[in-house]
Write a structure and sequence with these properties.
Elements (H helix, E strand, L loop, with lengths): L2 H13 L9 H7 L7 H14 L2 E3 L5 E3 L6 E7 L5 E3 L7 E3 L12 E8 L6 E9 L4 E9 L2 E6 L8 E3 L12 E8 L8 E9 L6 H9 L8 H9 L13 E2 L6 E4 L8 E7 L5 E8 L10 H9 L3 E2 L4 E2 L4 H7 L7 E11 L5 E12 L2 E4 H9 L13 H21 L8 E6 L5 E7 L3 H23 L6 E3 L5 H11 L12 H12 L5 H11 L4 E3 L23 H14 L5 H41 L6 E10 L2 E6 L4 E5 L8 E4 L4 E4 L5 E3 L3 E10 L4 E6 L3
Parallel strand pairs: 13-20, 14-21, 28-33
Antiparallel strand pairs: 1-2, 3-4, 3-6, 4-5, 6-7, 8-9, 8-11, 9-10, 11-12, 15-16, 16-19, 17-18, 19-20, 22-23, 24-25, 26-27, 26-32, 27-28, 29-30, 30-31, 32-33
Helix pairs in contact: 4-15, 9-10, 11-13, 12-13
């Protein structure tokens, strides 16, 4: 046992002993004979044990054993009404009344105690906050007699926060501001805060989205030193850049992206071989050639970890001068790349590959829409625009279908959730919301990128070099068992044999043609673990592969840029023992930070999408729409419209009967008339209310 673990074990044994009473650090140190010279270390160990959930603090800041008093650690999910829940993975969530939340805020990691066992949720109280999710929020500043007040935009944060005069920082009445909480107080005493940033007039165009960007703590302004380095980079490839690179400029090469894409980081070349196989070139922008470890650009990219794609803007990981310029694989110009060249047999199996530095020259930037039309519509006028590529496009379609079928045969999970495209005018108004359709063109890029990502990860695993893997661990057995128990009511069950992933894929396929198919897919997804980055190759359950990485988007994701840097150093013979040792030490933290920032970006994007959908529906109060029940809760059910907009029908609004909720069946049933509402049911609804501040729509059921 290490020295640190011995010290923790001694402290843990002390606080769990029968004679222990809650006490502060200084008193504990005296009893444990901790010398004054080691008191700082002693406090650090106590802080670690608090973070681990071994110890807890009473409201008088005295230490107690979490286990001894039956404390449970978990994230706190607050509601706009003041109460909340402590979330648990393998047990029902714990209900926390508004007067028992201590100083906790939405997202905080807390320790709580169950005070009443009940069903479906036990009732608890929060004892202490282990870790703050964040200490700032966004809201509108209101000037008052004792300073100011800011009501958080996110109602889950809690009531208005008091801003003393000295912390107003020139904020004016009615302005949108970013506030940092300086003092957390027990409810009902308001927290105290300080204005850190004045964002501007709430009515300014784009302020609604900017407020969410700041709320999620996403950096959106590049520091001067980062912009200066970006400005200093060349605008075109030089002769010196071509040293020790494969020259692929004569290869027929295209990029395939969305209509609005400006940061193009992948290009494709494909040749059909005489033996019936394929040679697939996946060219990825060589961002690491321009962004060196330790440089201002590198540090900023590492901090941001990802580009953030929102309904009305992109917040790039790298400045546009790079992401849309020298690193973007734009057509008709030379660009530097890392190319993964793969030979596949006639059945789509990779039989050999090479990863190399290269220079390419893309012939065309083609959109998903155009390529899909070329491949599916014989009379498409676009065919005449790419005569030399038509045969290659057909080969791409053939190979992509082979790769997809191979993945599905292995048990890869394929979720086909409805996505939307939100059209916004220059004034920030939502013009329309369209359902985004998948096509063979998107499938081509997905399959080719997955293939390259798997090949790269496999090679570097067997080279036994430090690396960044994209991992998706197997789900908890208990989660899958609980899921299957509930799906039995829908006539769905897992088949025996074949492996868990393959069986789940079979379940998805069988549910696909059911009215509730999309809802079932969401239930399955919620039962799985989240994919993340790791310095260990832990496998990818969803893709049914042992080794996987993110290699194909270094403009947009820092893990990809990190991988490119490792590959480039290896190809140049610069991965010496010191560098390898440094990577093994730093990669776990890099992976953790990247995973956290990826979730932050996703959360922000979801909140912006919800907001824009509510804005779009706000002038449609009273209008009638058709939809499908997509989700159920004890308080009502959600109905999803054809354009992917979702709203809730409150069960309290159904006054024709008393409706019971059957959680295991995801349905409601009336006691008197037997009317039921279940997943997948098609209904007619009326838009009843649009709550912009809550990003929520209320629907009412329309009956014949």
């Amino acid at each position: 046992m290490s020295d640190l673990l011995q010290k923790k074990a001694k402290i843990e044994g002390f606080v769990e002993s029968g004679d222990y009473r809650p006490m502060k650090a200084r008193e504990m140190a005296e009893i444990l004979s901790v010398p004054s010279s080691a008191f700082d270390l002693f406090e650090e160990i106590l802080a670690d044990m608090l973070a681990e959930g071994t110890l807890a603090l009473t409201r008088k800041n005295k230490f107690i054993s979490a286990a001894k008093v039956g404390l449970i650690k978990g994230p706190f999910s607050a509601t706009a009404k003041g109460y909340g829940f402590v979330l648990r993975q393998d047990a029902p969530d714990i209900f926390i009344p508004a007067d028992a939340i201590c100083t906790a805020m939405h997202g905080d990691l807390v320790l709580c105690r169950i005070v009443e066992e009940s069903s479906p949720s036990s009732i608890g109280e929060i004892i202490s906050v282990v870790e703050r999710a964040k200490q700032h929020f966004v809201g509108v500043f209101e000037l008052g007699e004792r300073g100011g007040w800011v009501m958080p935009d996110d109602k889950r944060v809690g009531p208005a926060v008091h801003i003393p005069w000295k912390f107003i920082n020139d904020a004016k009445d009615g302005e949108k501001v970013r506030v940092k909480i300086a003092k957390f107080n027990d409810s009902p005493t308001p927290h105290e805060g300080r204005v850190e940033q004045v964002l501007g007039n709430p009515l300014d165009i784009g302020m609604d989205v900017l407020s969410l960007v700041v709320e999620h703590d996403i950096p959106y302004i590049f520091p001067d030193n980062v912009l200066n380095q970006a400005q200093s980079l060349p605008h075109k490839v030089s002769a010196a850049d071509l040293n020790e690179r494969r020259d692929f400029r004569d290869l027929p090469t295209v990029t395939i992206d969305g209509e609005d894409t400006k940061d193009i980081d992948d290009a494709i070349s494909l040749a059909r071989l005489e033996n019936g196989g394929f040679r697939l070139y996946v060219h990825i922008a060589d961002v690491s050639h321009y962004v060196a470890p330790g440089s201002p650009l590198w540090k900023e990219a590492q901090k941001r970890a990802t580009s953030v794609y929102l309904a009305d803007r992109v917040i790039p990981m790298l400045p546009p001068q790079i992401s849309n310029g020298i690193c973007s694989l734009n057509p008709n110009v030379d660009r530097l790349a890392l190319s993964c060249v793969m030979d596949l047999d006639e059945d789509g199996r990779v039989i050999s590959h090479e990863i190399c530095k290269s220079v390419i020259h893309s012939d065309h930037a083609i959109t998903y829409t155009t390529l899909a039309e070329i491949l599916t519509e014989p009379d498409s006028p676009h065919r005449a625009s790419y005569p030399e590529f038509f045969e290659a496009f057909k080969h791409m379609e053939l190979l992509a279908n082979m790769l997809r079928q191979k993945r599905l045969h292995k048990g890869a999970l394929e979720f086909d959730f409805a996505e939307c495209k939100i059209l916004i005018d220059s004034g920030g108004n939502v013009v329309d919301i369209l359902r985004r359709e998948r096509s063979i063109a998107t499938s081509i890029i997905e399959e080719f990128m997955i293939c390259a990502n798997e090949v790269v990860a496999t090679e570097y695993f067997w080279m036994d070099l430090p690396f960044v893997y994209r991992v998706h661990e197997e789900p908890h057995k208990e989660k899958i068992e609980a899921l299957m128990e509930s799906l039995k009511t829908l006539g769905l069950s897992l088949r025996k044999g074949g492996g868990q992933a393959k069986n789940l894929q079979g379940l998805l396929s069988r549910a696909e043609n059911l009215p509730q198919g999309a809802a079932v897919a969401k239930l399955i997804l919620r039962s799985l673990k989240q994919a993340r980055y790791s310095a260990q190759a832990l496998g990818h359950f969803g893709l049914a592969t042992e080794f996987y990485s993110h290699f194909t988007s270094p403009i947009r994701r820092f893990p990809d840029l990190m991988i490119h840097s490792i590959i480039s150093a290896n190809l140049a013979g610069k991965l010496d023992e010191n560098y390898i040792s440094l990577l093994r030490e730093s990669l776990p933290d890099i992976c953790k930070h990247s995973s956290e920032n990826e979730r932050r970006a996703d959360d922000c994007a979801k909140d912006v999408e919800k907001l824009k959908k509510v804005q779009f529906m706000a002038d449609k109060i009273g209008e009638i729409f058709e939809g499908i029940i997509s989700h159920t809760t004890p308080g009502g059910f959600f109905v999803e419209l054809e354009n992917t907009v979702e709203g809730m029908v409150s069960i309290s609004g159904l006054t024709d009967d008393y409706y019971e909720y059957f959680e295991d069946r995801y349905s409601f049933k009336g006691r008197k008339h037997g009317q039921s509402f279940s997943l997948g049911d098609r209904l007619t609804i009326k838009v009843a209310a649009a709550h912009l501040e809550l990003r929520r729509l209320d629907f009412e059921l329309v009956t014949n």
